[in-house]
């Protein structure tokens, strides 16, 4: 999803939570500014649902929480809040909050032409501040391609590019699956 700048005044985090409860759309909150979240394509939605379902089923007997695009993430050390397409937290500190999580180990963003630069750039820079984030997966909605930003044991971020025929490996939640599992039955066409 893309955040399009809205016109509300500068808000405190508390004002943001109260204000957003009255809105029809979701809004990200970055540095006191509110940004409306636009909708995605049919493929975007289907891919996000497949990821959430695959991950939630895999983690069914664990203490982890799988979130969809309705679950906010508080950026560690800030009052900023985003809505990724899918997230997973296994951190006990996230069991005490009701409006957001702060310590996801996995974040999945489904890309579109309007979101790709933000998701690869400033949004990832914010997410990287999270000490427990291990996997940040960027998923194409127009071709069978995924880019995984994986934090290794020494804290370096590696970029793994996946394409048709590859097996995705999410070490953060000990899950591997063929890339085609997510793209099955989809008609993939470049965005206009």
How would you explain this protein's 3D organization?
With 192 residues, the protein is of the alpha+beta class. It has a single domain, classed as Alpha-Beta Complex (tt1808, chain A), CATH 3.90.1570.10. The protein is 21% helix and 31% strand. Strands 4-7-9-10-11-12 form a six-stranded mixed β-sheet, covered by helices on one side. The chain starts with a strand and ends in a 9-residue tail after the last helix. The N terminus is likely disordered.
- CATH homologous group name: tt1808, chain A
CATH architecture level-2 label: Alpha-Beta Complex
**Beta-sheet strand percentage?**
25-35%
Q: Strand-and-helix sequence, N→C? A: EHEEHEEEEEEHHEEEEEH
CATH class: Alpha Beta
Main beta sheet, described?
6 strands, mixed
What is the chains' assembly state? Answer: single chain
Ends distance: 16 Å
- Proportion of helical residues: 10-25%
Q: Give the number of domains.
A: 1
Enumerate how many helices there are, as a single number.
5
Question: What spatial order of strands do you see in the largest sheet?
Answer: 4-7-9-10-11-12
Output the structural class: alpha+beta
Rounded to an integer in angstroms, the radius of gyration calculated over CA atoms is 16 Å
CATH topology: tt1808, chain A
Unreliable spans are 1-6
Q: Would you report the number of β strands?
A: 14
GO molecular function: endonuclease activity
Protein name: Uma2 family endonuclease
InterPro entries: Nuclease_put_TT1808, Restrct_endonuc-II-like, Uma2
Keywords: Endonuclease, Hydrolase, Nuclease
């Amino acid at each position: 999803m893309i955040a399009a700048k809205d016109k509300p005044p500068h808000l405190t985090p508390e004002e943001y939570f109260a204000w957003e409860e009255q809105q029809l759309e979701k809004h990200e909150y970055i540095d006191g500014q509110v940004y409306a979240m636009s909708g995605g394509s049919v493929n975007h939605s289907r891919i996000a649902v497949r990821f959430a379902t695959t991950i939630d089923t895999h983690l069914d007997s664990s203490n982890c929480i799988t979130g969809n695009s309705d679950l906010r993430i508080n950026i560690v050390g800030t009052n900023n809040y985003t809505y990724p397409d899918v997230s997973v937290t296994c951190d006990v500190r996230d069991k005490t909050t009701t409006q957001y999580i702060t310590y996801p180990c996995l974040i999945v963003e489904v890309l579109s032409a309007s979101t790709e630069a933000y998701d690869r750039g400033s949004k990832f820079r914010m997410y990287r501040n999270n000490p427990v984030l291990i996997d940040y997966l960027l998923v194409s909605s127009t071709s069978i391609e995924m880019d995984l930003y994986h934090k290794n044991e020494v804290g370096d971020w590696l970029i793994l590019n996946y394409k048709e025929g590859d097996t995705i490996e999410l070490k953060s939640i000990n899950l591997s699956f063929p890339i085609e599992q997510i793209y099955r039955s989809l008609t993939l066409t470049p965005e206009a």
